[in-house]
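Subject: for your reference before the review

Hello V.,

The reviewers asked for a structural picture of the protein, and I figured it would be easier to keep everything in one thread rather than splitting it across files. Below is the amino acid sequence we used in the manuscript, unchanged from the supplementary table.
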Amino acid sequence: MQTSANLAIDKRRIKNDQTFTIIIRLCHFQKTTSISTGKSIPLHFWDDKNKKVRANYGRKSDVNLLNQFLYEQLGKARNIINVLELKNELRFLSINQVKERISKRRKFDSFLEYGDKLVDDLIKANRLGSAKSYRGLLTRLRSYTKKKDLKFNDINYEFLVNFETFHLSNNNSLNGLASYLRTLRSIYNKAIKDRLIEKEAYPFHDYQIKTTPTSKRAIQYESVLKLLHYKTEEGSWPFHYKNYFLISYLLFGMSFIDMAFLKKKNIVADRIKFQRKKTSKNYNILITDQLNEILQFYLNGKENDDFILPILNSETLSEQYKQVQEARNRYNKGLRRIANKCGIREYLTSYVSRHSFATHAMLKDIPLHVISSMLGHSKLNTTQIYLDSLPTNVLDRYHKQLALT
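And here is what came back from the structure prediction:
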């Protein structure tokens, strides 16, 4: 094998404290580079023959721990090289690529530290929703491990089972656990792509993420009509909340956060064009006469970069996300009050408009794949989660069509 790794001391650069950095000297096809171990000592305490720190550097126990640390770092580097060789990948990599594989693995043995790095990256990319989900999982894992570190090789089938027991024993929901585990799986898959962990170590081969059916959130079509005809004072909070629900319903069940971020420039001719925050899917939806009548109230006097709805007024994205969350909480409370006044017995929330749109579309015999496209789903089984059970009178109608003649 034409690749090797050994401990050495970098004599070329002296630090301000008169010490020299201990490195891993990497050789690959007659080229060399170095990887810092993060440790440095005065030059005369380095045993170049035996590639270790001399015993007289300090207390014996401290020197032994330091040398043990250095040997572990070297062992990990050599193990990565051996794995790459066994996979027949080593000869196709440059020395910098080999160094990157070793350096990344050394830097992120910790699942939690890697997760923190991903959160920072998501925030920089303005993907604050995903960052919030990742941070929520990491906080939960730190609670589970009692703030101890969590290495990648700690996460296996047994760990997932024990974490499940921990979560459910505190009277938490199975669907809440599924949300955490899907996020954990997402981080783990990213780590595999970053070559921090091998595919063979993937802990979800035998473990299945379980969920329980969620209660259906769709309301009857007649309830939507009650909301449509509900009389409100122009500009009042019931006026706005009624409109938010109807705008969402008429825009394929648009989420509250996407409505909040809609700007006048998203309206092009007779269409609304926007990108969904959650999935980054692009939408191009016709503005119907009914929808246009509602929007005109909000568009009056607005510039292209102005938000259409009176939800956001902050300049920074992080503050805008906080405003969305606070406004959504007020909106949900307001919807419940409106439901009581309208005689709607079903439970109204911001999600109900999306589920209701999907179910009502199904009852109008719109094909499932079309509804799926409207909702922006990549899989039909995701769409089915949104669909309410078919009423018995609809089943009876189809049943009669199947009569033998």
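For the response letter, the relevant points are probably these. The two ends are 77 Å apart (CA to CA). The chain has three domains: 3-105, 111-201, 221-395.

Happy to draft the paragraph if you're swamped.

O.
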